[in-house]
Amino acid sequence: MMDLDPLDPVSVNERLSKPPFVSIAGVVNVRDLGSYPSITSPGCITRPRFIFRSAEVSSITEEGVTQLKALGVKKVFDMRSDTEIERYGTPCPELEGIEIVRVPVFKVEDYSPEMMAKRFELYASGQTEAFMELYSQILDHAGPAFGVIIRHIRDHPDDGILFHCTAGKDRTGVLAAIILKLAGVDNESIAEDYGLTRIGREPARQKVMARLAKVPLFATNTEAARNMFSSRAEVMLAFLEVLQTKYGDVVEYLKQYLELTDEDIEIVRSNLLVGAS
């Protein structure tokens, strides 16, 4: 698939220098979820410099920590599992003045050989239907993890946060979609944000391919490894349809899986938005 070949580095660097991308030394795929118009709250946009998404921060530099602080980030929420951290040798760093909160979506028991083989098989296919199964797994398991983050948004509207998984694509993409959907952002814009991960991950391409080379399925299947870079807008559009039809829309998901009340949800929505002017 030609769209999964390496991207032109000049074009990538040019795009990474523009919003919603944010430069944090040592971290890739960092984006601000602010400045998206709300179609359910006309005249409002998602709050800039409030919520950021990224790939793992394990390699952040001192300069990167300074940049995070300048953005107003007070907490970093790490959705990676213990298994991932151990496998890749990427422990949480110490960030002076910024708290890291571990909120793993999947538990150790979710990484049995059988489950991992199935998950890798789904990733390897690159098919939209496969990603819907993967993303449904995330929704089914992520209530406690997402709940910690959403409640923080409810209770600390003046504290900037960053959340991430390993690549900043799947678990991070699902949570970003939930937040933007709750704020009233249109599906096309949410899908566009998801698609930007294709560019955001490109600087880490060699690192990702080196990791995949240690997994038998990907080591022997170049196409499957390349599919791991897939971040197609149509996948997110399909996910938003699943969220609506299978889970009863974002509000019902938050109530059932995160045990939020209608009042909680309204407070979170209000905290996510500011006047466009």
What does the model show?
There is one protein chain. With 277 residues, the protein is α/β, with parallel strands linked by helices. The chain has a single domain (2-275), classed as Protein tyrosine phosphatase superfamily (Protein-Tyrosine Phosphatase, Chain A), CATH 3.90.190. It has 15 helices and seven strands. The strands form two sheets. Strands 1-3-6-4-5 form a five-stranded mixed β-sheet, with helices on both faces. Strand 4, helix 3 (82-88) and strand 5 (99-102) form a beta-alpha-beta unit. Helix 4 (113-125) crosses helix 5 (128-141) and helix 8 (187-195) crosses helix 13.
Give the structure's gist in a few sentences:
With 277 residues, this protein is α/β, with parallel strands linked by helices. Helix content is 50%, strand content 10%. The protein starts with 8 loop residues before the first helix and ends with a strand.
